[in-house]
Amino acid sequence: MRPAFSVLFLTTLIGAGQGLLVALVAGQLFLVVGSGGITESGGFYAVGSALALVLLALGLLASFFHLANPQRAWRAATQWRTSWLSREVIALPAVMGMAVLYGGLHWLGWDMALMHFANGKSLDLTMAVGFVTVLACFALFLCTGMIYACVKFIREWASVWTVINYTLMGLASGFILAAAFAASSGAVVTGLFSGTALVLIIAALFGRAYSLWRNARIRPVSTLKGAIGAPHQNIRQVSQGFGGKSFNTTEFFHGASADTVRMLVVFFIAAGFIAPAALVLMGATALLWLAFAIQYVGLLAERWVFFAHGNHVQNLYYQRKA
Question: Does Membrane count among this protein's keywords (predicted)?
Answer without folding.
Answer: yes
